[in-house]
């Protein structure tokens, strides 16, 4: 029998999941290695009397770490960068015989190998590692330069000072005043979110007001959005979002994981996340999506109620997600894709089925093309992908399709989407389909056969935009997502996507009918809410033959998602076209036909089909138009200065012939006033309501006031005012 000691393997002891930044467990204040001998007084050893964190807005810690804008009394620093701490002792510190260290702890079950318990040695600082160095030792005070790891967990840490004695470790008691937030650091080259352009960092991390684009490809509208990432309690709300997701603390230093969890949690579908999506125009017990002016109210309500907030649509999800990312230090921006495909069967084709009379078959048409769709981009390296696929990553928190069992999307490398590398995680095939694909018009014949009538290869992903750096204008980023139509690179990207599993439904070039001599197009007159307007259809005969044409016009109120709510207009008419001639047909649409059906966003969608009797060819065209709606007017009086009272007036005039009921006006201005709302029971036709608020700005520089109005029958009414807030003169 062997004399070697017997080894037993017990079951592995599982440490409970450490998935809450809010949960705490006290570290013992004394870890003595045995009984202290009689006559030994532990007070003879170094005792901590105070800890100073230099955490005021004007202190170098917050200024150097670009965290001075946070309305938060705690120390907030960015990882991978040194900051200063001063420790006062009850006697002078002697480095030859006294030994102490600083410790940072996060969560309930701290473990050094998980990065949730961090003992910081007093040594020379080494790049890429935690460390602390004494930079001043005077009287009874020691000043340290502490550096965190550029890969450390992002969140709120508890701080302790531990002093060695011959009998064990003496540790300071839990003191919430020394709690320290550590964020991602786009200024640190070793951080995964490093961004090397100062103007881009100013825009994508530090700008707390953005512009979100919506509307139509050829009629782009914009609205400002208050991200408010520095407002009081917003940082805690963003950490709470990760707690609610039960995200393990050890993963919270990885921007890939953080952005993916955020993508799932900003929508409430399947995980009790932040916002409930609603596209049905019924917003009982909640706020209509168009009424929100920013993210602050939403995130604060979510944290305080611990329940999802009602209601949001894509631009609301994108606005709140942007706040979450920027607040934690991940560079982020909101992008808008005009004519965004929601491709149900992922075959890169939007199949629009027509009845034989030219009308759209709602039964067969399952794919939808959103007039626009907003998502986010987050900036990070992608060490999990080959070199070259870092940078902007598409992340989308609007609940559309399931990804790994949850409603989320991304991060998908924008570069990978452009080149068709849809094999790379996460959700690249879905994003690829959103910006690529063909719109195909198919006639479903009564005998069950399908005939492809026409193909539009340029409709999907027509234009992709974001807010320009340092201004409110449009930056066209379409080229980031796709090569130009017809280029050799575009064909290669599609072939690559198909090779990696994207599906192409049919070889359309084989089945499209021969081209007709007749062209058809139509224009919709500018539509002002409550007014009549015309739709003009033009037919052009480019051949020597005479043609007779049966035409059909359908007008629908549609959601911006392309889903139709109600048909308000349909008209059939016949046209005879002589050789080499053109004809126009005008259709009058009266205000009364569409006013009673309006939705959250007033899109009127027109579909015109024309059947050429002689050739049986079908021509089809569709266009949407947005109504021009009234604005909320904002005025101010008094000094626009930090700390001075200023009066803000909000006005709205009802332009309609009907009385508006149950009107809410929302007002917001980051750094100028906290979000507010006021209700009016009704506004008579042509009557004006006015609301005054006194505020005292606390942030200088360019600011904005943003207001919205919502009522039972009119929504998406909006207004804004640019301000320049002066600094308070120094005395």
TrEMBL record:
Enzyme class, broadest EC rank: transferase
SUPFAM superfamilies xref list: Cysteine proteinases, E set domains, Transglutaminase, two C-terminal domains
Domain of life according to the entry: Eukaryota
InterPro entries: Ig-like_fold, Ig_E-set, Papain-like_cys_pep_sf, Transglutaminase, Transglutaminase-like, Transglutaminase-like_sf, Transglutaminase_animal, Transglutaminase_AS
Catalytic activity of the protein: L-glutaminyl-[protein] + L-lysyl-[protein] = [protein]-L-lysyl-N(6)-5-L-glutamyl-[protein] + NH4(+)
Keyword Secreted: yes
Documented EC number(s): 2.3.2.13
One annotated GO molecular function: metal ion binding
GO biological process, any: blood coagulation, fibrin clot formation
Glycoprotein recorded as keyword: yes
Key words, A-Z: Acetylation, Acyltransferase, Blood coagulation, Calcium, Cytoplasm, Glycoprotein, Hemostasis, Metal-binding, Secreted, Transferase, Zymogen
Any one Pfam family match given in the protein's UniProt record, by short name: Transglut_core
One CC-aspect GO term: cytoplasm
Note on cofactor: Binds 1 Ca(2+) ion per subunit.
Subcellular location field: Cytoplasm; Secreted
Active site: 314, 373, 396
Location of the region described as Disordered in the Swiss-Prot/TrEMBL record: 1-25
Purpose of the protein: Factor XIII is activated by thrombin and calcium ion to a transglutaminase that catalyzes the formation of gamma-glutamyl-epsilon-lysine cross-links between fibrin chains, thus stabilizing the fibrin clot. Also cross-link alpha-2-plasmin inhibitor, or fibronectin, to the alpha chains of fibrin.
Subunit and interaction comment: Tetramer of two A chains (F13A1) and two B (F13B) chains.
Protein name per the record: Coagulation factor XIII A chain
Annotated organism of origin: Cavia porcellus
């Amino acid at each position: 029998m062997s004399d070697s000691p017997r080894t037993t393997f017990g079951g592995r002891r599982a440490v409970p999941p450490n998935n809450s930044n809010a949960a705490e467990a006290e570290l013992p204040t004394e870890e003595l290695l045995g009984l202290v001998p009689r006559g030994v007084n532990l007070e003879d050893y170094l005792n901590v009397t105070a800890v100073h964190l230099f955490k005021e807005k004007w202190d170098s810690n917050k200024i150097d770490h670009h965290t001075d804008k946070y309305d938060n009394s705690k120390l907030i620093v960015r990882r991978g960068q040194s900051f200063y701490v001063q420790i006062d002792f009850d006697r002078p510190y002697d480095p030859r015989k006294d030994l102490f260290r600083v410790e940072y702890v996060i969560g309930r079950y701290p473990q050094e190998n998980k990065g949730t318990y961090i003992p910081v040695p007093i040594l020379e600082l080494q790049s890429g590692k935690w460390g602390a160095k004494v930079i001043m030792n005077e009287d009874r005070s020691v000043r340290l330069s502490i550096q965190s790891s550029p890969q450390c967990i992002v969140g709120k840490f508890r701080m302790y000072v531990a002093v060695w004695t011959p009998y064990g470790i003496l540790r300071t008691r839990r003191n919430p005043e020394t709690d320290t937030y550590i964020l991602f650091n786009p200024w640190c080259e070793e951080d995964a979110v490093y961004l090397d352009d100062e103007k881009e960092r100013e825009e994508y991390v530090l700008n707390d007001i953005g512009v979100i684009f919506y509307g139509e490809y050829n009629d782009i509208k914009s609205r400002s959005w208050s991200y408010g990432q520095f407002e009081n309690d917003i940082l805690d709300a963003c950490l709470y979002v990760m707690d609610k997701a039960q995200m393990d603390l050890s993963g919270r230093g990885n921007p890939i994981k953080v952005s993916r969890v955020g993508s799932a949690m900003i929508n409430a579908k399947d995980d009790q996340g932040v916002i409930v999506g609603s596209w049905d125009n019924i917003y009982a017990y909640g706020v209509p999506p168009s009424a929100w002016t920013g993210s602050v109210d939403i995130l604060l309500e979510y944290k305080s109620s611990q329940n999802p907030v009602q209601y949001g649509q894509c631009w609301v999800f994108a606005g709140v997600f942007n706040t979450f990312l920027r607040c934690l230090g991940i560079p982020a921006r909101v992008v808008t894709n005009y004519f965004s495909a929601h491709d149900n069967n992922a075959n890169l084709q939007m199949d629009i089925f027509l009845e034989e009379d030219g009308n759209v078959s709602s039964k067969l048409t399952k794919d939808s093309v959103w007039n626009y769709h907003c998502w986010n981009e987050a900036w990070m390296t992608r060490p999990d992908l080959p070199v070259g696929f870092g940078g902007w990553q598409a992340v989308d928190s609007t609940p559309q399709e399931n990804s790994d069992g949850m409603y989320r999307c991304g991060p998908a490398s924008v570069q990978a989407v452009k080149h068709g590398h849809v094999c790379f995680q996460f959700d690249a095939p879905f994003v690829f389909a959103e910006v690529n694909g063909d719109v195909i018009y198919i006639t479903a014949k009564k005998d069950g056969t399908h005939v492809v009538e026409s193909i539009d290869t340029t409709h999907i992903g027509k234009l992709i935009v974001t807010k320009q750096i340092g201004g409110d204008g449009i930056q066209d980023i379409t080229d980031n997502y796709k090569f130009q139509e017809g280029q050799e690179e575009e064909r290669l990207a599609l072939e690559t996507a198909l090779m990696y599993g994207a599906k192409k439904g049919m070889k359309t070039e084989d089945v499209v009918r021969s081209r007709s001599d007749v062209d058809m197009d139509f224009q919709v007159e500018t539509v002002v809410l409550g007014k009549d307007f015309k739709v003009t259809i033009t037919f052009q005969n480019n051949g020597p033959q005479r043609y007779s044409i049966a035409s059909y016009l359908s007008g629908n109120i549609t959601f911006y998602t392309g889903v139709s709510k109600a048909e308000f207009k349909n008209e059939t008419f016949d046209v005879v076209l002589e050789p080499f001639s053109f004809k126009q047909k005008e259709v009058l649409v009266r205000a009364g036909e569409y006013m009673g059906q309006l939705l959250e966003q007033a899109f009127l969608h027109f579909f015109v089909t024309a059947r050429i009797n002689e050739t049986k060819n079908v021509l089809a065209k569709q266009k949407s138009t947005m109504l021009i709606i009234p604005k909320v007017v904002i005025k101010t009086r008094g000094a626009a200065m930090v700390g001075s009272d200023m009066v803000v007036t909000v006005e709205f005039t009802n332009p309609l012939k009907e009385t508006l009921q149950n009107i809410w006006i929302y007002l917001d201005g980051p750094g100028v006033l906290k979000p507010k709302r006021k209700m009016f029971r009704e506004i008579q036709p042509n009557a004006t309501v006015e609301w005054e608020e006194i505020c005292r700005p606390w942030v200088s520089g360019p600011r904005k006031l943003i207001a919205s109005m919502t009522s039972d029958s009119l929504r998406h009414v909006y207004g804004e005012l640019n301000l320049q807030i002066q600094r308070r003169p120094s005395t």
